[in-house]
Amino acid sequence: MRSIARLVHLRQNFLSCSVTNPRTFTTTRVIRNDKGSSHAEESVTHFGFKEVPEKKKEDLVGQVFANVASKYDLMNDIMSLGIHRLWKNYFINSLAPGPDTKLIDVAGGSGDIAISFLKYCHKTYTSSSPHVTIVDINQQMLSVASSRLESLPYPKSEYTLLLSNAESLSPVPSDSFDAYTIAFGIRNCTHISRVLSEAYRVLKPGGRFMCLEFAPKQSLAIIEKLYDVYSFDVIPVIGQVIAQDRDSYQYLVESIRKFPQQEQFAEMIKNAGFVVMGKGWTDLSFGVSAIHEGFKI
Fold first, then answer.
1. Residue 110, annotated ligand binder?
2. Residue 4, C-beta contacts closer than 8 angstroms, at least 6 positions apart
3. Binding of S-adenosyl-L-methionine: at which residues (predicted)?
4. Mind listing the domains of the chain with CATH numbers?
5. What does residue 25 show for φ and ψ, rounded to 5 degrees?
């Protein structure tokens, strides 16, 4: 594992999912009775490697994050060998927000991205009035973010906490944000295409969409093999030892493998209406994670 840690310093060098609709990653199953006649249909999707009714996934994912909320940062340390902190710093530096940027951070977790954003603005500009709206579907996660922010020297006028679903940001007006970020959250959503459509809606013209997410396939075979071993043989065991919760960590590992590969996700971003520059993403740590982005024109 030391070899992976060393590779992070080269940051710039730094699913098998059978679906009917790759934009939603769901399919439709016909339920038949004992006589063989069909009597109902239901949409199904993946929950890790399991197939579950689409309408149940949100509750299942919600339970996972309720379970890990108090140890969310530790979870990310385990999932990424601690490298996620460097990725997030690079993510915000790549965003390069202006002094008065209005950011919406969806699936805001424990507030990592929001805190990095505020820190960047106050460190970079002598006079600034940034604002971040932290959105999460899980109240426990928002409570963690709130506690962290209250312990820092940022005025409450610079951040808002919003309990809402990434697939339907109904409390958020259209054309209202300069930037939209989502880090390590979109792979847990049932309908990725709906998340992207909502991101497009709430951004102002000229606004920037940025997503940081684990990638299902790494660019070097040796890295992929090492990360597979670590993911499936080590992470769930650590989850059991540290959090007494093997199942949640097992799901989180599996959810990475079910996420679209970089090329496919970039195409989904385009299909949502965004203009994508170049190939549309930057691999980090040889493709262990990637930053995707697009612009609303």
1. yes
2. 81, 83, 223, 226, 227, 230, 285, 288
3. 110, 136, 165-166
4. 2-11+62-219+245-295 (3.40.50.150)
5. 55, 40
